Amino acid sequence: MQFSVTTSTLDKPRAGIRAAGIAHKRKPAAGAAALDVARDGEITALLKAGEMDGDAGSRLLLPGSGSKGSALLIGLGAKKDFDAGAARKAAQALAAALVERPATSAAIAVADFQPRGKDIAWVVHTLVAAISDAAYRFTPFKGKEKTTPVQLDKIQLCVERKDAEAAKKACTEAAAIATGVNRAKDLGNTPPNVCYPESLAETAREMAKQYNQLKATVLDEKDLEKLGAGAILAVGKGSERPPRLIAMEYAGGKKGAAPVVLVGKGITFDTGGISLKPGAEMDEMKYDMCGAASVFGVIEACCELGLPVNVVGVVTSAENMPDGRATRPGDIVTTLSGQTVEILNTDAEGRLVLADALTWVERYKPKVVIDIATLTGACIIALGHQGAAILGNKEPLIKRLLAAGEETGDRGWQLPLWPEYQEQLKSNFADMANIGGRPAGTITAACFLSRYTEDYTWAHVDIAGVAWKSGKEKGATGRPVPMLMRYLLDQA
Ligand code: BES
Ligand code: MN
Ligand code: ZN
Q: Does the pLDDT of residue 308 top 80, yes or no?
């Protein structure tokens, strides 16, 4: 999909469909007014006739004829209620309406969708993200029964001259982020017989070939043994698909500048291991690599954008399977850090693969380390499917991530990491257990990670509730690529 910015008014660009916003019980403003003139007052007449009242969620399609394209009016709701949340909903309604039309090109009156307190860049980001999201399809495994393809391909964002420069910059950024989000969705949706640790390694190598600023390094099971990464190896032991530790170094910033390091949980399928999960919806555990997928997505977006920051994306990948060779509950392993862990539940495997990766990344002398993981079911109990849980060892980093989430609508919420919770990880036989009991499961998982991150500024993002959707709409969301990219853009 191609996004571009133009300073023509909505009636000017050649487009199959032109879209504008109508506030509740208001005359056409800005974009809609230009369209009204072009259509000889048709919009004013229809509004007068009560064909549309501008309620949030309402929409009206005016068919085109001849060389005149069609027009789409999106209800914005009451002007006084038009805040960022309402604008995001309007953008989503617009996107849904656009992608179901046969038109291949669209022009949008951007200012119509600008809520109070937000600049034009925010609107452009919001529109591009919403349209790209609505247009996403995952079809590589569809044989005969094809999903109807989306026709929409070219989107022109119409802005005023004074806003053009900011809008163009935002458009470039947003398009790159959309590419990254789609990469994360594709990897997440790929079935677990096709997506496994070595295939993720291959994806990293391919990306490094595609982008000059990117270098990929892969550690295989032999390398991990030599290194002493006992936790990653323990998780992968039950699988025919050996684990991998993958590093993607994106050198966009000043030479020698400390990098932002992202560490993604890449469990390509989580059966629970010997502590086997119940069968219902187990297929969704193919999404247990969505943390890793978001790291790939961010790295790709950085490459596309040439972001002037050094970023290292690390993916710690294994398949958690039950087997004669699998790790047992009660096994004690030595992690890369030298600390020992009593594995009381083999289903708490994410924190294990992360522990070794979080130790390994010390070599980068990172500015900050952010790990992203579908780590705990408890996170869904705490926050549902609205936000990621964010915890860490330094407040400013957590605050920046929360702000980035708020700005993009890809939200997070902080949970405490009080030292008292650490007691739940006590083991009688090793330095720590890998589970902390039922209470505060998301927090005790983060407590476990905190024992491997003492030497740097660190935040943990638990995306168990937001990385994918279940049910009829089943599919990866690409979250939290938007949050992380906003954070990185704010650093640049
Ligand atoms: N990948 C799961 C967490 C998960 C479950 C995410 C369901 C999204 C939906 C993780 O590896 C896991 O199994 N965690 C256990 C930890 C427990 C054994 C302490 C959990 O949350 O039940
Ligand atoms: Mn698990
Ligand atoms: Zn898992």
A: yes
